[in-house]
Protein 1
Amino acid sequence: MRSYNLFRRRGREALFCAVPESCAVPRFVGGRRWTFGGRINGSANPPPGFDDRAAATAVRFNGFYLFQCLDEGGSERGAGRT
């Protein structure tokens, strides 16, 4: 699995942007609407909703991967919950 930096959308905490560590952070992530949300690497479990194959495809075309973080029950993760 590739290593990614995660960015979380403020006000929509379930929306994440995963950017490979080897790639530049997209311009839309800069500013006040997004905050750093951690890292994904081969040794850590990715957040629910992250799909490694979909991420690889999205990165190939866009340079980043947007996904919605879901809890184990399949519902959107609420604000403040991890």
Protein 2
Amino acid sequence: MWMMLWLAIGLSITASAQPAELSPSERYIEQWGDEAVYQMALYGIPASITLAQGILESGNGNSQLAMKSNNHFGIKCHGQWTGEKVYHDDDAKNECFRAYQNAAESFQDHSEFLKKPRYESLFVLKPTDYKGWAKGLKKCGYATNPKYASKLVGLIEEYGLERYDEQGLTLAADRAAFAEAKNATDRQQRNTKRDVNARAKNPNKSGEVLSGIRSVQISENDIRYTLANGGESYESLAKELDMMTWQLYRYNGVKRTAQSTPYRPAAGETVYLQPKRARGQTDWLSMRQGESIWEASQRSGVSVKSLVRKNRLTEDNPLPESGKLSLKWRLTPEGKMPGWLRTIRGPNG
């Protein structure tokens, strides 16, 4: 009797320890969550709305229309559609629906479909206002079901799909930063070519600017700087360089109060004469032993604030565990480059 009881308890514990099987909707979300996030970064449509519509319109990807034609959003042919078509009974018999080579094309076409003037009022809403988007889709006539908006909201809240909206906003910001960096690189290449041509015409011209007897140079991150001789203060340097004292403190990230003594940079220490950048010229900076974030900021020309944000540093984790700082991209919570960037560059990028 006791043996049977213990056996029953053991089987119960074993069963409860097994991971719960995903529901059809959870499997759909797991499969298409990244695509919805990517579409949000491109078009501004909340990823939560895209996923909820996909679940509802395609029956978690298992509807006849989705299986037959990869159409996950029930988009009909309409007059201007020139792609593949299938015919399916819906509001009327034998209606024309769009067909795609794969489901990813359906997600892309869904985004482009919502960019039509008919839905332009939706893009006035915040991309995190999924309730407003759900009501707006119904109002604009996306679906005839009177409960369409409440069904979308119900799915979003049941599965916590709003978390994908935050991922979409982050990816959009990273894509904008990527474009900005590319533009900055293009500008720098043009400026470098111009400077090379100018020096070729005037070989006696130096690559540095002289202020009195002090050399002012340009860093690889395109910031004007000088090197301290040792013994001088920011106050004396400001007078020598015809600058305001507050500029040196702010540009170099040194705190200053009415009670603090003048800051004296060590001999050879970099003193920036312009604000540090939000991004570096390279992806990574390997930290030196015992180096602080401020010292890494001075070495890279990237502001402390930007380094902290990009590397998700906190008071509890003030230094990166990997020993490397990302200078360009905001890392994922796992400490990796953004997924879209890794997709573009490949596994070795």
